[in-house]
C-alpha cells in the first residue's frame, strides 16, 4: 500500500450510497464525524462481540483522532463484514480480501430505523472522489473571537479540538501576558492545529533533496529545479492542492487556512525566498514536504544570506514531524553553516533521521569507509549519546548501479528503502500523538518563560536605578536562570538558550512586564496534570 493510501476503497457505487445513508444516520449531530458514543450505538447493531468492535475501531481510527470520518467509517464497516464472515480482524485484513465483492455488513433493525428517520436524514454530499466532506466544527471562530468566553464542551468532537479549547482558555492567556510569542514562538492559530504532518529535508547542495521528493511522488512538482549546482535557492513547501501551481511566500504567509503565518516574523527578505508548490496527489493528502536551499560550504557561506537561515530551519523543525538530513558520499564534511543548522534542531532529536543518499556511486569497500566517516562527523555535531539512525540508499528513479555495489549492496539498499518508507508511512498515524507531544512541550516552555519574566520583574527596583538594574540582570542572565530553576524546581534542560533570550530581552523594558500571576501558572499546571489526560481518556477507543 502506498503511503497515505486509505484501505477503504474498491466498493461499488451502490455500496457507497448505502454507506453514505448509514454514515448520515450514525452521525447524530451532522458534523461529518462519528465519535465514540455514536459508534457504540450504531456498531451494536452488528451484534459483534465487544472485543471484535474494539479491534475494528482501533484499525479504522489508526490516526487516533478520536472520531471516524467517512473513509474511516467505510473501513470500519468493511471490517465488520469480514468479522461477521468469521475472518480474523487485523491491519492486513482489508489488503488480503477482495473488497469489490464485499457486501455491507448485516445490521439488526437498521433498515426500520432508516425508514423511520428518512424524512430527517441529512444527505452528505460526496466530493470529487466520492467521499463525503467532513465539515469540521467551525473552530477557526474560536481563535478570531475577541471575547475569552468559555467554549462549550459539546463543541469538542476530537482530540485536536480539545487541544484548541485548552490552548485558548488556559495556555494562550499566559503566552500573551509574558510575550512568549516574541521570545520563543508565535501564537498558535487554528491552521497550526489542523495542518497535515510535515517532513523537512535538509542537506548541503546537490545531495538529492528535491530528487528525493520527486522519487516519493513519482512525478515532478511545480517549481522543482535539479542540478549539480545549488539550484533550490528557496524554501519550497510541497502540499496538496486542487491544481498545479506555485504561490509566492508573501501570499501564503497571510492565508488564514495555512500554518505559515508565523514566518512573517522573518521579514520580506525571507518571504521572497519562500514559496508553496501545490498539486493534486494522493501522498500529499497526508504529508506535506518542505524542500530547503542547499546548506552552503566554504567561501559561499561567508557571503551572508539576507535572512536568518538557522532561525527559519528552527521554526520549521518545531512544526515538522520528521527531519531528514541528507548526505552523499562525496559531501561528508559538515560546514559551519550546516553545523549551526543542526544545532538549531536542539530539542527535536527524536524527529531526526539521517539519509546517506547516492550510495551506489561508490563500491562496497568505499561505502564502509564513507559510512564510518559520516558517523564520525555526525558524532561531533549531534550531541546525543545515542547513535542516529542512518538510511543508506539511492533515492532516485534510476535503477541501482549494481556494477558498483554488487548484488548484496542492491539488496541492502532495497531493505533500507523499505525501512525509510515504513517510517514515512507511520507519520500520518502518529500525527495526533505528535501534536499532543508538541503542545505539552510548548506548555512547559511557556510556564518556564513566565517564571523567568516574573523573576526578572521582581528583581527590578521600585523607583530609582532601573536602567542599571536591567543591564545587570541581562549581563547575569545565566545566574538568574539558575535562581529560577532552584526556586521553582524546574529541569535545567527545559530552559531557553541564554544568548537568544538576552538578545530579545534587550529590546524590552523589564519594568513594563507583568508580575507572575500564580492563578495563570496554576491553570497551565492543571491543564498538564488533569485536562490533557482527561481529554485523551474521553477520545480513546470507546470499547476500552
Automatic annotation (TrEMBL):
Task: Please name one Pfam family that this protein belongs to.
Answer: EH
MF terms per GO, please?
calcium ion binding; GTP binding
Every copy of the EH domain together lies at: 15-109
| Segments forming a coiled coil | none
Top-rank taxon of the source lineage equals: Eukaryota
Q: Record's InterPro entries?
A: DUF5600, Dynamin_N, EF-hand-dom_pair, EF_hand_dom, EH_dom, EHD_N, G_DYNAMIN_dom, P-loop_NTPase
Gene Ontology biological process terms from the UniProt entry: endocytosis; endosomal transport; protein homooligomerization
- Major location (coarse): membrane
Topology term for the membrane:
Peripheral membrane protein
Kindly list the GO CC terms recorded for this protein.
endosome membrane; plasma membrane
Q: Which CDD domains match?
A: EH, EHD
The EF-hand domain sits at 48-83
Instruction: Pinpoint the Dynamin-type G domain residues.
Output: 193-429
Localization annotation = Cell membrane; Endosome membrane
Q: Which UniProt keywords apply?
A: Calcium, Cell membrane, Endosome, Membrane, Metal-binding, Nucleotide-binding
Protein name listed in UniProt: Dynamin-type G domain-containing protein
